[in-house]
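Letters spell out the chain; backbone shape is given numerically. Both lines appear below:
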Amino acid sequence: MSISPKAKRNISRIIPFAIIWLVIGWIIDITVFDATRNQNLNPDTDITFTIPVLIFASLANIVVGLIVGTLEVVYLEKNSRTEH
């Protein structure tokens, strides 16, 4: 099975979105952890910063980044071309 050049180009343009979302997520996680020192003021609703939480948040950020990147590269680019 071969990937078309257009698909390769789109994938190479979508991956940076996932990386950016991942890095920004890490920055936010580190900032929140540093600000709260992982002391939950409301243990019933606050999330404790643990490795499994970090892994889940990282995966969620990657998925959201891939979705946003796909929308941006495939859908919005196609719509912006038709307007010109």
